[in-house]
Structure formats: structure tokens, C-alpha cells
Amino acid sequence: VSAEDALAAVEPKRRSAPVRYAVVELLSREGCLSSSEISYYTGATMQTLRGLKKAGLVEFSEREVLRVSRYDDAPAREDIVLNGEQQAAFDGLCTLLGREGGSAALLHGVTASGKTQVYIRLIEEALTRGKTAMLLVPEIALTPQMLRRFTAQFGSDVAMLHSALPLTERYDQWKRIRRGEVRVVLGTRSAVFAPLQNLGLIILDEEQETSYQSENPPRYHARDVAQFRCAQNDALLLLGSATPTIETAYAAKNSRYQVFSLHKRFNDLPLPKVLIADMKDELRQGNETSIGHALRAELEKNIERGEQSILFLNRRGSARMLLCGECGYVPQCPRCSVPMTYHSANERLMCHYCGHSEAVVDRCSECGGLMKRVGSGTQKVEQELFDLFPKAKVLRMDADTIGASRGHEALLREFEEKNIPILLGTQMVAKGLDFENVTLVGVLDADLSLYAQNYHAAERTYSLLAQVVGRAGRGERPGRAVIQTYHPENEVIQAAAKQDYETFYQNELRMRSLRRYPPFADLFTLTVSGLDELRVIAAARALCDALRYASSQPPLSGLDVEVLGPAGAPVVKVNNRYRYCVYLCGKGGSVLRRTVSEYLLAFYARKENRGLDIFADCNALQ
Q: Can the peptide bond before residue 138 be classed as cis, meaning omega within 30 degrees of 0?
């Protein structure tokens, strides 16, 4: 029945059946609507709608409505004009698109050099050639900001995938990709498996980030999966970073990747001026807070000018631990071999490995002495900032705030739109964020990652410092940064302050060469875990002995293989499971990998290893 005939049919009963008339009038004006929309605008029940259907005045039909996040406030599409360096990089990368067998390249540019603009132009080129494209980012916090920009450029042709999306929305996004309804995928690590057809380009932004490696089954590195997919689809893999890993830079210098460099910031903006503040001087002057005098003075200037600041501390909670001043007792997690972290927000001690928590006690359970709070976390620094600047609002961004309330997107939008003076956070504020009014960055404890039990410690420290300093001065006003450290003379901190990657690279490469660390050899870590510590140690020792014997026999005997261990993992017990490691170091490549695979299978075949687990990691990032 036509809309006119339906209206004519209900007109005589307009007064006695106003809801029926309102429904027909609404549908004649709007066309097809969902039952919930009709009910919202007219108050009609399903019984009313069924009555209209029985009378032949309306028709029911089913239509799939996908649950997909929309960004109606996305900025207008911009015509991207590349500068000379960007254009040269873009032109060179275009020649690599569609090469048989795939290709790989590194886009190495200082912070704020305009790598994202090159990404967008390259994706446009891939789409023009009838291909699809994928951009991976390391942090969920970066996806909303990036999605708005990509929505402005590509409209509804973009799908987003990451673990924080509701499962239903993630499934609907996957269906859109599978059907070919979108040609661009934006997401975090797991998005590398998105079922894009006719793939032409995969971009790993901030390729140095450890979050691209999955520590839980299935264990994989997004870069390796991307490399495989590109080889299968004759696609281009582009790694982008201001601070590439030593392995990536070494491979590029040895022609495994083509390198395109951006040496200057976009629009010739200057790099931030960096002050290295010696915190030993602060202690001598009696300042025991996390905010040194130099950083405090710079924060005051920014607050007065109405400019914004980002403060970085890679430790959440209020204090690193509680310590008895009498006997030295430290409350440990009963499930893990780590001290618990004090959280002032809920007055509890919490384990950041397994989630166990306990109420805080003022007295030592061992001797009755008074418990002291040792070290600082983001919660404690937040309180110190409130005390120093009572009229300035502070936003805290860490796993506690984004997990318990509004999430990354709402917090970052509030920071930008309400011009909040200070954003304090963990490593999620250290990379990828782009706010024009941020002119000051403060690093509260630059030494935290410098002495970690991992050969990546120096690399990770350089990357974090260089990246977070690069958040400042991305608008018209110049940026400044204050790096607080107890080791101001350290060459890693000095290089990061100058954003001098080449000096850092050469120094680190020399150290790794002396110690036979990657990229000069492969380092396999075989971790045995189980509930019984003695059984785990025995199994790890047997594995170590077997590998030592194998390393003296062909095919390993000529590869200068070294077997070390067994030794406890950096954190021996996690969630009641003990972990011991055996290390295998050598240059064997595929031979070593095949040997490790054989020993993993043999481990599970042994009866005495029942109930134990084992996994291997090559050149472990954690």
C-alpha cells in the first residue's frame, strides 16, 4: 500500500487511535525505521505495530545493523601537502608497492616529522591501485585519535580492531572486513590477522614497541606475521619509528630494508629544548618529592601561560612498596615473588602481576614496627601536584584510571577540549599523542627502565625518553622538556635528550657485539613453568644438560652455540607458577630454531614432565 493510501485509511480514526496515525504518518515521512525508533518517537508498542501489519498498512522486514563506532565529529578532510623530505620518502615507497614476493622498508623520522602524513598518502596510493591497507599502532590509547584522522580522509572505508572494543562490535567490524565493505584497517597487535582481501600495504607505526609481541598463547610478533602476509600478497611492509630497534636499524643498514629518512620536524619546527635535572642535588637540598625545582618552575610558567604539560612516570600506584623501618620486612604477594604496590585510592596493597590485593596495615606483621611507604607511583605524584598547584586540574592516565572509568578516549578528549593544564601518565602518554598546546614534558624518573634485567634496557630507555620528549612543541609554540635522573652523565640519557639516534645506535651496537647479543646472534629463552618449584628446577636442569650435549654434536657443533642456565626468570613465581629459564645463544638461524622445536616436543613426551609447561622465545623483548 502507498503512503498516501495508508494515511487515508487511518485518517478517520485519527482522534480515537492517535498512536496508529502517528506511526503511519512517521513512516510515510521517513520511510523505513526500526521498531525501537518508532516506539521512541510515537510510543507505539509491538502490539500496535502488529495490528497495523495485519491491516496491511505497514510491512515488517529484517535488516542487519552493524555495531560500529562512529565519529561524527571527525575533522574535515584535508589535502595533505608533503614537504621535500616527505615527498622523497613517498615517491620511493610507491616504487615498492606491488613488488613480486613483497618488500619491506623503514621510515625513520624524528618525532613530529610527519610520518602519519606519509602513511595517509601511501594508503591513498594503495587504494588507487585497487589494493587494501592496514595500519597497526602499539597502544589502544592511540586508536581513537588516529581513527578520527583516518575517518576524515577515508570516510566509512575504515574499520577499527582492538581488544578494548566490545566483543559484539569487534565481530561486526570483522564481518565488514571479511565482506570487503572496508579497505582500510586500523588497530593494535591482533588486527594483523584481519581478513583483508587483495592486501597491498601493512604499516607498523612505532615498530620498536614491545606491545607488538604477544606474551600469551598464541605467542607471536605482529611484525613477523605482517612480514609473512606481505610476502604472500606481494605487499609492502612499512616499519615507522623515530627510535627503531637496534635489530631493525642493523637490518636496514645491511640492506634487508630500504630506508627513508625524515631528519626535520614538519614545517621546520624546532626540537624541544631539553634540561637534564640531577635529582641527587634535590636530595641534598632536602626535596624528597618527585617534582624537582627545575620542573616545578617550568610547570608554573605553563600554568600561567595557559599552556599544557605532560608528565611521565612509568610506575602506577602510590608507592613502590611498604617497608618496615625496624626489621626491613616488605609485604610480598602470596602468589608471586614480587613486593605488592601501595595504592592510596583504595588503601590497598596490589600485585600488578596477578591482581591479588590486601588491606594496608600500619604495623609490621613480623615485628610490629611502623611501615613506611617507599618510592613513588602516579597516584602519589598526582597528590604532590595537587599540593603544589591546588588551582590547576590534573588528569591521571594509567591502567587504574582508564580501566575503572571512562577509558583512553574520553580522558584524552577532556585533556584536549578543556585545556587541562597537566596530564600525568605511564608509558601510554609517551608515544603517538599529538596536542598542539603541549609545550612542556617532564620525565620524573628516567632511570626506572635503565637497569632492567634485559639486554633491551638501554634501547627501551632511549626510546621512551626520545618519544615522550617529542610530545612537546608540536604546535606553533616551541617545546621544552625536563628529564629528572640520578645519572645525568649516562650516555643513553644524554643521547635521548639530544634525540641523537645515530650516536646511541653506534654505542649500543658496540656493546651488543662484545656480549654476543642480537643482532650478532640469536638468543633463545626456553622457560619451564609449573606449580612445584623443585620439579620445575629438575626439568630445566635436565633440558639444559641435554642442550649442552647437543651443542657439542652436529649440526650445532660448528655454530659456536652457548647454553646458559638454568636460572630463575626475572620474576620467578607468577600466580603460583614457578618459572626457570634455559638460554641458547648462537648464529645458527634455522638450524637453531629447528633444534629448539625438537626439544619442545621432546619435553612434553617425557612422563616426568607431566603437569609442567614450556615455551620458547627468540630474542625476547620482555
A: no
Tell me the pLDDT tens digit for each residue of 135-156. 999 887 777 778 888 888 998 8
- Residue 389 resides in a domain: yes
Burial zone of 268 (CB within 10 Å; 0-12 exposed, 13-18 middle, 19+ buried):
exposed
For Cα atoms 211, 170, 122, give the angle at the middle one, nearest 5 degrees: 65
Residue 46 in this model has a pLDDT that exceeds 80: yes
The residue range of the domain holding 302 is 269-318+376-512
Q: Quick one: angle between helices 491-498 and 501-515, nearest 10?
A: 150
Residue 66 has pLDDT above 70, yes or no: no
Could you give the CA distance from residue 359 to residue 341 in angstroms, rounded to a whole number? 11
Q: Which of 479, 512, 545 is the last residue of a domain?
A: 512
DSSP run (H or E) holding 236: strand 236-241
CA distances from 378 to 93, 203, 263, 307, 605 (A): 41, 32, 34, 21, 47
In a domain, 456, yes or no: yes
- pTM over cut 0.90: no
Is 263 in the same domain as 116?
Answer: yes
Question: What are 134's strand-pairing partners?
Answer: 185, 202
For position 100, what pLDDT does the model report? Answer: 94
| Residue 167, number of CB atoms within 10 A of its CB | 8
| Torsion-angle region of 360 (φ positive above 0: left; ψ -120 to 50: alpha; else: beta) | beta
Nearest CA-CA partner of 249 in 205, 207, 213, 214:
207
- Is residue 256 included in any domain, yes or no? yes
Is residue 214 situated within a structural domain?
Answer: yes
DSSP-derived secondary structure for 284-346 = HTT--SSS-HHHHHHHHHHHHHT-EEEEE-S--SSBSEEEETTT----B-SSSSSBPEEETTT
413 dihedral zone (left: phi>0; alpha: psi -120 to 50; beta): alpha
Number of domains in the chain: 4
Whether residue 367 is predicted with pLDDT greater than 90 in this model: the reply is yes
Q: Are residues 261 and 385 in the same domain?
A: no
Q: Return the pLDDT at 169.
A: 85
% of the chain residues with pLDDT over 90: 65
Q: Of 528, 523, 525, which is closest to residue 603 (Cα–Cα)? A: 528
Choosing from 236, 267, 298, the residue where a domain stops is 267
The three-point CA angle 322-465-448 to 5° equals 20
Q: What is the pLDDT of residues 421-433, one digit of tens each?
A: 999 998 888 877 8
